[in-house]
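In the previous chapter we treated chains in isolation. Here, by contrast, the input contains two separate entities that must be folded as one system, with a combined length of 971 residues.
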Amino acid sequence: MIQSKKILLLFTLLFIFIFLGCESLKSSKPIMPIKEYEKMIAGRLDADYVGTARCLSACHSHDKIKQDFNASTMGAQLSKKSGLPIVDCESCHGPGSLAIEDITPEKVEQDRKEGKETKCKYETLIDYKNLPAQALSLICLKCHTANATFNLHNWNAGVHAMNDISCSDCHKVHVGVDLKVKPRETVEMCTKCHEEIRAEFLLPSHHPLAERKVFCTDCHDSHGTPNEKSLRKATVKETCTQCHAEKEGPFVFEHADNSEECSRCHSPHGSINNNLLVTRVPFLCLQCHEGHGRYSDTRKDVYYMNCTTCHSQIHGSDIQQRFIQ
Amino acid sequence: MKMFLILLFSVLFIFNSSVFAEETETTETEAEIYHFPEIKPEFYGLLGYRIVSLGGSEKAGEFEYLHSSPVIGGEIRAFPFPHRLHLEADVLNKKDYFIDMDYSYKDLILFRGINRTLFHNLDNLTLIDPQPTVANTDSREVFVRDAGEKYGVFADFKNVFLRLKTPDFPFHVYFDGKVYDRDSSSQHTLYSSPTPTASWRGRISEKREVDLNLRDYTIGMNSHLGPIEADLSHGEKRLDVTGDKVVSNYYNKKLLPYGLLPDLKSSTNTLKLHTSYTGRLVASASVSSTDKENRDSGAKADYFAGSADITYVPLTTVTLVARYKHKEADLDNPLSLPAGYLGYSGFTTITGIKPSLSSQTDTVSGYARFRPFKGLGLNAEYTYERAKRKNSDEWNIPEKTTQRNIALSANIRPFKKLTFKTRYVHLNVSNPSYNTQPDTSDSGSISMSWNPFTWANTLLSYSIAKDKRDNLHFAGYVEAKNRTAKRDKLLGNITFMLSDKLSVTPSYAYSHNKIKQDLLIDNAANIGQLDRDVPYKDTASSYSLNVNYAPKKNLNINAEASETKGRGGFYPGNAGALQSNTIASFSVLKVKETTYSIGSDYRFKGDWAVGLKYKYNNFKDMINNPYDDAKSGMVRIILLTISKKW
């Protein structure tokens, strides 16, 4: 009897521990909260939450925003039926009681008859236009830090965060079916800031980005990675061989460790030279290799027309060390 | 005991509300409850025809499938909560289509599938015999076995992502699959005997048809575990090659293999951990281990990559980041190949194969950002990287190479309509491994974005990089010294909003790459001749004009014209080793690409619309250099569509 009571107690304590553990497992606590930013995004402390209906009911200027928003993932989060966690207007914009103070449906109707648009006191909401980028991002990260959003794994130390790019610079919350940018639209979005990259893709030999056959996000992760140029993979070679897999190797005869770094010979965005080469052949090869010997004049011409006509397995060979086979 | 347990369970039920996820009820009036509108499904369908006209080389329409065809497309959006569905498809022809599908059920199931294809037209390049009237028995002779062949690559990319989540708890299991199929018909060149009985080799071009199938699957799980989140995944990658996987040809009266494309296999395990993203202190770390194997030759490679970073925000005006990255590449190649390798009886044993280079690279970097006031951001970054190689003696490259990199940048916004960005980077390399790697490199860039009037927006940017190298290495030859490189780019555009219906954007981009380097070229007696400061230069300039005009609410017109010119070449000068005229002529390039396009959409009542797009592209080899791999061509494409939304 005493033994069974002890076992029951043990299971009970275990059960309690799991439930308490689950609660702490779910919660997300920042290490040393940035109180200055927390204050900025908390909104007016003297305002109350009024609910989504009051944000949207009287102001018809919100109708277009509402219509676009409804079909988006964040819009769906206004509805319990969607099964998503509920996130409403004031979750991001702060408590709205001061904004709609003194606004009634009768006033809106009166203004409409007079040809005026009723404006709310939007300046009492969170001041998005003047928030620092880190604080703007914090509004999104409050939720996206607790739901195992691993595509943000390197966001804080990434090049975009370090250069004051916030989530809202790329993700337009109120527009569209999908908050993520469509793959075929990434070229327009990215080249708004990276205009010099767009120019590279206009060169005669280029990856078909402008033709919308490949996308910036095939090679780069805009949320940040520990790799150079925010490449998705740990090395340049791993990134390129996502598609050009036959160049990956390993081979019996490697091109030293040159083949680990495709950008030594290739310019991935665009080049005037065929095959995206950084310089023209044979100069490309002569930069590192001694030119051929034992020739007559006309045979010498052959050596310098195009090295890879003979050395065709230049990325690595399983047969012959000079890459001829 | 019983009372104790009852009290304990009571405490749990009363206070542990998040575990049981009960929603509190408010006393809202009917008028205050937000009724989410029912979103009706939306459909969009498109039918059309695409007319293609080609003259000359397919280079003019390099990534277009150059055959006329009907066109079909559409989009469906449906939100029967808790389901959400989005499907989009654009089919230009059987070789060029894009399909994107999203499905989600609550936050429990998330599915994304994308299938896209492209067709890449390739040129058939003619090998050139320098003495066409002389029957030589060496590499001067060419054998064109693919005259008139048309080449191209059809690539089909499929991406599938499926994520499952536990209810009310952030635990996910996911599958990420990529399948890449490539059917190619391309030119293969080789240096081989032209006939089974010849004991000499010439240059041969022939057709090669290869099919690649690449499968890259990753399964993983991640979860929130109190102060950290963890993600664990395992990936498998397989490459299978069929078709002309290996080409057979003769040398010295023996049938031998050429150009083997091996089947590859790799496995990767990855672990990622990070803290909350929202604190002053944020840390993340990841480790991954990959094993690769070449299934035809038996060559193997193991890779390990680990990285960690810590971000600290002591003040809102200051951000500090420290990063560490460690990479190991351990290559293990066979040191001999047996007789009869790959099933070729003529293949004789090869022994004493050099072991491949393995390496270990450590990178440490620190980054500081200071934003003293709104409108000014100052950044500084220091990176130290050390690469250590194994078997470097056999390859005549340094065992260790270290790099130190300092980058300084500033973002300045003196007032709302004007922004400057500047950046300066200094790189110092000890024991550079290849001649193209500099001892020192300095680069700088500046860009200005200015909105002087509400109807004008300008962008201007310039960047320059200079590399210097003092101790080139050519396999034991000590006299070669210098290499300098300079790259600069200029970009400018202005957008004029002439009215709310009309915008015009002219733009110009220029890039220039200039190198001067000592080259070593053997003479007829096989003695290296130094050619000092051989110049190389290539330049490109692009002009474009874009016009957007919407004269009516239901009519939209977009027109664009662009011209890109590129030229390049190198100019060796040592008369004792080279005939400068001949060698230079092989690499000289001068090309021009001109593109015009105009497109228009007109929307009728009832959500009908008609569209017309015209595109003209002309690629021209301006000097008709037979050696420059550039062939002239011109393509016109007209696309007529009719669409409806409902």
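Chain B touches chain A through 195 residues (CB under 8 Å). Residues 7-28 of chain B have pLDDT under 50 and may be disordered. Compare these points with the single-chain example from earlier in the chapter.
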